[in-house]
Design goal:
By secondary structure, this protein is of the alpha/beta class. It is 46% helix and 20% strand. The chain has a single domain, classed as Rossmann fold (3-Layer(aba) Sandwich). This is Transketolase, C-terminal domain.
Length: 129
Amino acid sequence: MLRDGSDVTIIANGTLTHRAMKAAEILAADGIEARVLNMASVRPIDEEAIIAAAKETGAIVTCEEHTIFGGLGSAVAEVVTENAPVLMKRLGVPGIFPPTGSANFLLDEFGMSPEGIAMTATGLIKRKS
């Protein structure tokens, strides 16, 4: 766990971990406490941390810099649905052929800027209430 929080959990890996931390700072400025988990490994995955996060925050956003199918978000969803079902949103490339551009452009294009991650987390919190 990189940051503790009780309102929502952001689970990221790779370069998106830094953006997840920035998103948590944005959320904190609005009074929202986001837990941030760095999921350095998808297999094996830290089931205990995911289950605790689901039970303690009630909402999870995953962030990965590739397709949302068959990666971090899918692995987290498997753990969550089998152990502690909560609202969840997977951020990544949504199963389409992405446009050409820089890495930063593509991450921003698919909602993985710190602001985009924060907005997604805020939306889940609203749905949770």
